[in-house]
Amino acid sequence: MSIILKTPDKTNQLLTRKNVLLILGCLTVFILFKKSVESLLSNTVVNYLFNQVESIWYNDIIFFLITFIPIFFIFYRYRNYTPSNHITILILITSIIYLFYRIEGATWEFTPFSLYFKIKYADTLLIISICQLLLYIPRKKITPNIENNSFFDDNSLGKIGNDELGYSSYAELLGEKILSSHFEKSFAIGINGKWGAGKTSFIDLLKRKVQNDNIIEINFNPWNNHSPKAIIKDFFETVQESIRPYHSSLSRLFIQYSNKLVDLNSNTVTQSIQTTVSAISGFDSLNSLYQDINTALVSIDKKIIVYIDDLDRLDKHEIIEVIRLIRNTANFYNTFFIVAYDRNYVVNALKQHNPYKQEEFLEKIFQIEITLPFYKKDILRYKLAEKLKTKLPEIDFTTIDNAVIGTPSSIPVFLNEWLESMRDVTRLANAILLNLNKIKGEVVFNDLLRIELLRLKYPSSYELLSKRETEFLDTESEHGSRKQHYKLKNISKKEVEPLNETEPNIKTYFELHLYRNHSELSIPKNDIPKIVDFVNTIFGGGYSFNYYSKSHLSIIYPSKFNHYFAYKLLDGALSEIEFSKARSLNQKDFNAKITEWIINGLELELKSRFSEIKFF
After folding, report:
1. Is residue 147 part of a domain?
2. Which residues contact 148 (CB under 8 A, 6 or more apart)?
């Protein structure tokens, strides 16, 4: 049982069972050795320090200031400060002992203030203790309402989050199987999915199902460690902390077992020496410790569930160590390992360790491997629209829906292909929230969505367009108009034939550059057609593309192009928001504004903008 005292930023547990036992233990030791402690203090700090303090007016001032400092500290830092439990416990123990002697008044005589003899100089310690405890009083943190201006987090579901991808039923089915299973040794379940596919959220759903008094839940994060040896130590320390309440000696056995595993060297000579020393000295061997642990686990008869998430964050040596724990060194009675990973990543790590049949090796480790269930990609589009509408209330929701969800006649199927997980949705939503901030009303939302998606998935392609536009983009005039727009620059006819011999069907310089430099650009070669088709739909390709339907703020127009990459209105650019406001003024004020824009060098921008007006 623990008393939880809340502080502004986190829950700080002061009176936990461990801390209470520590305080009681120190006080017990003091009571048992009271005479010795008194003698030691009398011959040291009391005689040589405290006895030298006189009751005089300037000492009153000094001790008053010492008392004032912690009081001032509380008022100054109360709301945003989390006190140290260790310091608080030390102050509490010292204060309790002092209070005993203060009330008893027999052993030592404490020096009083010269102005008021009932208050002692040493009472400063009690004031400090009270001030320290006041820091634990729960207080409400006042924060401004910034909900609409904040980023979206990428956290998993946790204990109460909503299942957005429909994993619940499958997690419940797996949980029922685990609850009804019982094994003499460990049983390992692999959860396979790409990064960001929701493996952690699936584990959260599984935990909700696998809950009862017969379950010991252990959450082990191997990626918190920096070496294979540290993984072993941390694993058994984590296990023994969870097991301790159920068996008196299991904690000690786990620590001994982990120490032997860490010290044990693969060198056969070292193993022989250790075996000999163990036999002579009577120390338990690794085998006997393993048997003792298993026997103890049988006696408590609990189902141990060990959750290991993000195995694919580790390097090859650490992955091998975790696998060794699962299948060998921690192969304990009725223990279940639930391990989440990207199978391709783990297989590649195993390949570097042992090039022989990695897939079959992985099958020996996990008695069952599941893949996260299928869900319709449409869900991701709807979640993206939902997120954007909660943070961008000033943008017409129809605009967001048309761009993300689509219309009956036009569905943005590219989002189904490019958005692969809820993590992609969150990252894209955050990117749009940030980069749209300074250019709302100055760009086309649909264009920004597409160009941000390109930056999210293939940042090197995005940089090519933003920094080398003249190399990969060409201008052409619209029919019956002098207005020009961008399109991907085609390769001249003279270059087509020689290029086709080695790189068939290449039509643009952008595509050519991607093929020739895909390794340096970190772009899979097979993805290049998808990238080129996508960029082509932005700058003039596709059967549904119509220049007449494009807004004058579109990325295809050279004067607007850089707005989408600078994330602000550039110097010398005419603000669409300012122009629209000026049009609502009376004629005199509007003329004055036009004169101001011309003086600022925006004459060409103004001519272009007036030519685009169709309704007055």
Report:
1. no
2. 390, 391, 393
> Which of the two residues, 12 and 537, has the higher pLDDT score?
537
For residue range 66-83, list pLDDT tens digits in order.
888 877 777 776 666 777
DSSP for 494-510? HHHHHHHHHSTT--BHH
In a shared domain, residues 286 and 348: yes
**Distance between CA 537 and CA 449 in Å, rounded?**
13
- Closest of 372, 381, 423 to residue 196, by C-alpha: 423
Coil, helix or strand at residue 476:
strand
188-190-195 Cα angle (round to 5): 150
**Taking a C-beta distance cutoff of 8 angstroms, is the pair 510, 489 a contact?**
yes
Same domain, yes or no, for 184 and 273?
yes
Single out the residue of 382, 384, 381, 456 nearest to residue 426, CA to CA.
Answer: 384
Q: How, if at all, do strands 187-192 and 335-341 pair?
A: parallel
Q: DSSP secondary structure string, 486-542?
A: EEEPBPPHHHHHHHHHHSTT--BHHHHHHHHHTTTTT--GGGHHHHHHHHHHHTT-S
Where in the sequence is the domain holding 575, given as residue range(s)?
A: 571-616
Quick one: 186 and 128 in the same domain? no
Tell me how long the chain is: 616
CA separation for the pair 196, 424 (Å, rounded): 7
Number of domains in the chain: 5
Is 310 among the domain residues?
Answer: yes
Q: What residues contact residue 212 under an 8 Å CB cut-off, 6+ apart?
A: 179
Q: Which is more confident, 481 or 11?
A: 481
pTM for the structure as a whole: 0.74
Confidence grade of residue 276 (pLDDT, cut at 50, 70, 90) = very low
Q: Say yes or no to pLDDT of 561 above 60.
A: yes
Element (DSSP H or E) covering residue 308: strand 303-308
Cβ atoms of 433 and 151 within 8 Å: the answer is yes
Contact partners, residue 170, CB within 8 Å, separation at least 6: 202, 370, 373
**β-strand pairing of 484-488 with 303-308:** unpaired
Nearest to 338 by CA among 217, 478, 467, 488: 217
3-state helix, strand, coil in the chain (%, to 5): 60, 10, 35
Q: Return the number of other C-beta atoms located less than 10 Å from residue 266's C-beta.
A: 6
Name the pLDDT band for 208 (thresholds 50, 70, 90): very high
| One domain for residues 382 and 343 | no
Q: How far is CA 301 from the centre of its chain?
A: 36
- Report CA torsion sign: 444, 449, 455, 458: negative
The tokens describing 283, both together, are 């120390």
Per-residue CA distances from 306 to 204, 221, 229, 236 (Å): 13, 10, 19, 11
Instruction: For residues 381 and 340, state if they share a domain.
Output: no
User: What residue type is 307 in one-letter code?
Assistant: Y
